Amino acid sequence: MATPSPSPTPILIELVNNDAGSFDWIATLLPFVTLAVGAYATYFFTGRADRLKAKRDNAIRWHDEVRTFVAEAVTSARAIHQESADREGLVSVPDPDDQDEADHLYALSVTRAQEEHDNLLELQGGLSLVAPGTITDALFGVIKASTQLRLASDDQADEYRAKLRPAITVLVDATREYLGIEEVKK
Fold it and tell me: What's the total number of domains in the chain?
């Protein structure tokens, strides 16, 4: 009887049964896995950094707008305060011949204060779009105090001027806090 000739071992069986090279595929796969994890981490952290930078840039852009609006509002409020103080000596002048000129200056002062008050109202609209509630609330306090001062009788002017000054300070402090400006200690 003839002996059967041995058949060659299939290649697949040799690859699977080969003890010495059974983990060679891990050495090939490891760089690809490392590359994929690195690419994902880079994508994630770069995207996060870009979002934070965009948020910071947007806030800084609005900081300029807020700073401009508030500076103009403070200037207008101080002008209203000054106009009221300037009118105090125009109510009655010692020389009756000067009363007509004093009345004219008084009327001009009232008109300038009204223009500044109108400016405050316009600024409130713009500021409410870009500023947080702390600043718009503080501006509302300034507008309220300036309105009371404008409508006050000459006898009440000192009382309402005294209310306007702290309202301006509250607005400045709220803006400093929002912008991250620390007060310089002397």
Answer: 1
DSSP string, 122-179: HHHHHHHHHS-HHHHHHHHHHHHHHHHHHHS-TTTHHHHHHHHHHHHHHHHHHHHHHH
Whole-angstrom Cα distance, residue 105 to residue 116?
16
pTM of the model: 0.64
> Which tokens sit at 183?
């007060």
Least confident of 74-78, 109-113, 161-165, 175-179: 109-113
Distances (CA, A) of 152 to 14, 78, 118, 145, 159: 103, 17, 17, 10, 9
Domain of residue 106: give its range: 61-179
Question: Is residue 9 situated within a structural domain?
Answer: no
User: For residue range 158-170, what is the model confidence (pLDDT) as tens digits?
Assistant: 888 899 999 999 9
CATH of the domain at 85: 1.20.120
Count Cβ atoms below 10 Å from residue 171 Cβ, excluding itself: 25
